[in-house]
Amino acid sequence: MNRPRPFILRADRVVADWRRPADVAEALAVADGVVLAVGSLADVWRAVGSDCPTRDLGDCLLAPAFHDAHLHLAKVALQRRILDIAPTWSRDEVLAAVRRAAAGSPGGWIVGRGWDHSAWGAWPDAAWLDAAAPGRPVCLTRKDGHVVWLSSAALNLADIGADQADPAGGEIVRRPDGSLNGILKETAIELAYAALPQSTPESRRVALREVWPSFWSEGITTVTDMGFKGLDLWQDLGELRADGTLGLRVAAYVMEDGLDEALALGLPQLAPDPWLRAAGLKLFLDGTLGSSTAWLLAPYEGSPDKVGLATMRAADVWEAVALAAQAGWPTAAHAIGDAAVRQALDAFAAHPTAPGGRRLRHRVEHVQLLHPEDLPRFAAGGIWASLQPVHLAADWPVADRHWGADRCRQSGYAWRSLLDAGASLALGSDAPIEPQSVLPALRVALSRRDLAGHPAHGWHPHQALPLPAALCGYTWGGAAACGWEGWLGTLGAGKAADLVALEGLRLEGTTDEMAAALDGARVRSTWLAGRPVWATASAAEADDVTSPLLLGAADRG
Fold first, then answer.
1. In terms of pTM, does the model score above 0.70?
2. 164 lies in some domain
3. Would 448 be classed as within a structural domain?
């Protein structure tokens, strides 16, 4: 079988590695989905021959495609099939959407996600849903995925009564008279989910196939998935990989409920694969800021004894981390509050290596509040900080209210402090909690302002990230955090030809000037395994975009 002929891509500038943004090239050569050479056009010609076909992408920056280092892929896909409640909606708008859903369907469950009560002045109540959809079981998940809001009919179908005890690591919220108000927090949400109609493998796979272009349009070709129930998603991805319709490279973490099965199947010992990687164990150590369940070392503002929720017992955390480490797997720990971050760091320090001495790439996910004493422990322990800058856009006023301005000034979303202390950063979106859009998230990372430009001078702007560091976190950082940097995250001979062509990105000037320029920046085209899979309308013909989901046998290898 003849190997595909190399071709050359030329652009105004080519940045192969965001750790070294000043090292600018002008061309790269690609064949069979792999980069052959990067450098000046003369250098590339010397490597592959000056008679190779050349595509001139013009006035744009060509760089490694983006890697979203933290999201929930199955939920991104399935959310398109339920009631999508934007987090900016008011209570009245949410209830109006529920009324429309009830009127549009004859019966059964109404399921949705995305509400945010932060500006409502109170937690919602089952009675509101009962009035909007009388007699209907309604289950609406909060935007952060850590709280559900149920109607009375849903409470009955889930067999949750006033005498139901709180599960470990969760809370069934009650009104002052002891009756249920329909709010379930943290581990208690599983009581509701167990009663919902379950998605089938085929429905999930169809939904996944439909979602790839939404990632390509953002310049994303690789994602790190942070867990779905059991091994369902892993099996779905394996089927898509086998039939050639896996449209992203995926590093998948397995949640605790799938760990025993994953170990029995030998997932930690799987041979390297260029498209699908069993990356490690995912644990949830606390809740979230918006749900007031993030676990803190000191009480919430105005609440002398409220410190949030530890969602796992310490002994269970240690046992799970040790079991995964013994099998050669690192652990990624969801930890938003400073108490949860400290628990993760303690557990990782106790189990830093796999058998044989290989250091494990443990990760702390979110790190939204970090005690200053724990700051140097990331670099010292080789522990990755997995951050989602876009969260700050919605969270900064809530953080000040719940955690206090003084505590936030010192320890809230301490991105620059982590970077300056030598921590390795991986950046992501936490989709579907937030959109998987990279360029707006980069603006938040640089400006510490929300997408409306507030606060005017940035929220504790001393913690802003430089643009190259943020871009590194969305490329090399994402790949290296899951052990994939030998194949992804930078462009060089032998690396995957996963590329993004960007227009309007400014790499010189002040941080504010670069942040402002991101408003006008856009993805021109996205290349996966050396093939253009998405482009703007003006660029599509020039870049010869391939049909989605038609990856050939060579690309699948």
1. yes
2. yes
3. no
